[in-house]
Amino acid sequence: xxxxxxxxxxxxxxxxxxxxxxxxxxxxxxxxxxxxxxxxxxxxxxxxxxxxxxxxxxxxxxxxxxxxxxxxxxxxxxxxxxxxxxxxxxxxxxxxxxxxxxxxxxxxxxxxxxxxxxxxxxxxxxxxxxxxxxxxxxxxxxxxxxxxxxxxxxxxxxxxxxxxxxxxxxxxxxxxxxxxxxxxxxxxxxxxxxxxxxxxxxxxxxxxxxxxxxxxxxxxxxxxxxxxxxxxxxxxxxxxxxxxxxxxxxxxxxxxxxxxxxxxxxxxxxxxxxxxxxxxxxxxxxxxxxxxxxxxxxxxxxxxxxxxxxxxxxxxxxxxxxxxxxxxxxxxxxxxxxxxxxxxxxxxxxxxxxxxxxxxxxxxxxxxxxxxxxxxxxxxxxxxxxxxxxxxxxxxxxxxxxxxxxxxxxxxxxxxxxxxxxxxxxxxxxxxxxxxxxxxxxxxxxxxxxxxxxxxxxxxxxxxxxxxxxxxxxxxxxxxxxxxxxxxxxxxxxxxxxxxxxxxxxxxxxxxxxxxxxxxxxxxxxxxxxxxxxxxxxxxxxxxxxxxxxxxxxxxxxxxxxxxxxxxxxxxxxxxxxxxxxxxxxxxxxxxxxxxxxxxxxxxxxxxxxxxxxxxxxxxxxxxxxxxxxxxxxxxxxx
Length: 639
Fold this sequence. Notes:
By secondary structure, the protein is an alpha+beta fold.
């Protein structure tokens, strides 16, 4: 049956494709609906993947994409990665002008060929061939044809017929053939809403999609894969670089990975053993021991990417890391675990998809060896909770994983099996920035201020890096941070980084000329000196997408304002309190005495997933906060 299918595919597909070739290569034939809001149009994308043996898989792809403008150039996607497990049999690109006339042909050996990893990688055999083409005119069309053979079956290309924002798709087909006796894990999402035709059956996956209009990115948009058609496939029995594994479920996969990839790789030298045991001597609490070990790793190793072992999946031996004092995320995590084993602290190697902006989960219902993670961290279970260690950082506090691996499903690998566990969720209250200031206002409207900022949670991560910059860059940072204040002169900057409390403190002294506007005998003063929210979410007359606030936060501000002795308060505004499902805002300014005012402000933004219908109310909430933050009071000169 497989041979018959292949024959039909080989004979019929070229006739279907090339009977439409001239039409698809001519940009003038793109339906007007697919041009709307699009920077690029995928005219045709057809993938055929066949599993030929446990350790052999072939992938043929033909893709035609029209680039409408310079913003669409990234959608050419004419590249292939390869290494010792990937053999490129065919790779060719042809470029056509707007009328479908061929203007350039690029054969396999004409593609650029570079290392697939950056200069921070010590060694790797991973490379990439890519099309280097500078367009002289728009639109233009690229026909890209490839045939690739893999010596493994552990990862199967995903199907996403909508390839990105502002990219439409005229036709996309995905076919996958396999031996039905080898069961398949599948994850298929958002098919019905986009009219996906699914003609799959045992041994054959077949998806088709037609005329998918471009989706425009909107502020706070969720991940595209969460709202468009997306399919992931995975053979339950797979091979990878000589290893044969099974992914029936996360528990069994974790046990297999522990036994095949991790056991026997946690030995360290006698010298290091003695050092570690001396360091923890007299300590009984497991967390105290773990902190000592974590600090030791930070002080004695550095991060360098090393793409070796089983396709970059297996960690380097702890003994090797111990010797050379460097490693990648896998090696350093395994090394830290090895040292924790020595002192009797339980810890587990954990795979995660790390990303600073989007919170990317491992799908708990789709067990897979590859494809859902790009990083490794360490899990320390303790009294019913979990502590997460980022072992590649030489500066990160113990247990701090905000802004990179927080709030997502990860794969914890234990000797008795694997488990999907959620990493720490940093609440809005934990993500605190507390700003206090003493401000002296002159009768000319100038200010002198001493400011104290304390940041925690995710906001700690946004602030603590400033201490490592040059003095010039630190000064420029604060001028930009308070860019709404003119004529700022930064007088001094001091920092304190409390890694036990995970609190970063900034003490800043500054002056600013003409901060308050002088009009005759009056000074118009904005009492919110140092935390003004000024950007309003983009307005949409007809928003199309739901929206997401990935991380909440809390700002508190308290300023003591000394006014000139020959001035008095003419008008103060009333207290403000706004509260809804998006957050809470409060603002007050009160008179302490004749020459001192107290300003207080609190702003909480709540994490959450919201409907498109909620967006206008969310934007109105922001508008009101911006309005209040920019409000002013009036001081008048005494007669």
